Amino acid sequence: MSKRILAAVFAAVLSLSVLGGCGNGGSSSTPASSGDSSKEASSTPASQAAEDYTPTFLIVSEPVTFTAATTTENMADTLWYKAYAEATNVNIEWQYWSDWDTQIGVAMAGDSLPDMTFNLWLSGVDKTTMAQYGGTGKLVDYSKYLNIMPNLSALFEEYPESRLAVSNEDGSMYGLPGYLETLTAFNGTLFYRTDMFEEAGVSEPKTTDELLEAVKTVQAYFSAKDPDFVALMPYNSGHMDHLNYLLFPAFGDAVDLDFGATDGKTVTFNRISDQYRHYLEYLHELYTSGGFYQEVFSEDGTNTKPLIVGNHCAMTTYGTMYTADNFASGNYDVDMLAPLTSQYSSTQKYGKAYNSRLTPSMISSDCKDVETLLKWVDALYAPEDNPIADGVSSISMWLGVKGTDWDYDDDTHQTYTINVPADYDGAATNYLAQYGLSNAFNCIFTSLNSSSLGLRCKGEGTRDKLLPYAVSVFPSNYFTLSSEDSSRFAEVYTDISTYVSESYASFVLNGVTDDAWSSYVAQIEKMGISDAVAIYQDAYDRYLADLG
User: To 5 degrees, how large is the angle CA 279–CA 283–CA 285?
Assistant: First the structure.
């Protein structure tokens, strides 16, 4: 009998990034023989094609093979790839790239691009870099092929911001959008042990004051019998940001911790606002409550993970620590907090993560079969008619085949079960990361708007706890800055960002006095924050105009 485990995986993992690039000569795919364009025709921009492409998942009648570089070592063995290859008749020979920055540089400089690079979870990718790559003449401009990419075109029509995220000033696009329609509750969620709260006689907090009292009460109750107990334990120093996403909006109108525009027009820097000061004062109260993990700013997860998994913690920012194995006894339950209110704001708000972002998804202009590759990529954006998604876009793309690799637990489609083969040689909780996709996987899909599949942890998930209160964050990732503005912004804001981070830790640890706050604000102003705001104001004005 197969082992069955509850998938406690976040909606943030439902993201597939594709980086295409076709190589020369022997690395090109076999031309399609099903009526698809020939090699010569496929190099012609789709805007010149006689007919628009009607999508199907059987992209070619005879199997074709491309080569692809990936940062996932065992991509060929993943459940989603096997299912997708069968559905499309497009196969991939995977090459493992362990060092993207070095290897893409070598490939772009030389003649060694594979047909594609794929599944790249990368940070710091911007349109300037992508435009520089495109300026070499080695890359396909996707904007010329949209009539054979109907699924991507539909995404652009429904969510115009996703096009802005990848378009350069001249309208060209050399990267594709990663799009996630649900909340990334992985960022900005506080999970709590409902069984522990019940035992301590504490109800789910609805306000920031109630959360503070819950931390104190739960700590007092469990620490009496467990000297290692800590009521609220961020997983590591980086996870203080998770608290920021959830708690900062409770203290005023803004949901953005850094730049924002609460009136929809005027850019502000919120780290010098009254709202931010009130929030810092509250964090200091949490930190000194007796139930907050004291080493949070130096923690990397080494010490907190065993405490979280080992029942020494009632609240954490990292829900995947509460895996299916933790629930085997039936005495262990988890839910997540909804956005809180405070004396400063009676409105529940949650800063919804960026829905769309740029991925370094490129195809070489030397590719011998551009159209087949584009159709394969476009199928990844398909909505509910995806034959291997069983009515829900993207779910099977990381779990495998419904009914074989996974299935819903009930008619609500709120939870599902992963079927782990009995002969799997490893922990059941490692199976998805090894043969599905881990929570570090990036996304290309839309939809998943009917529920928060997988984000349950035996709780209700984002659908009920976060989605009703979602407010879009400041769209700075969609901005197009000139080279001069980009350099100037980096020159000014890099030092400010460092100073803000250092001050944040100091305020949390030591508290906020009038003198310290005045000095902090004055220093940020002296460092040139007005210049950074002005650059973003111009970019935001252009963004609003482009958005229409």
Answer: 115
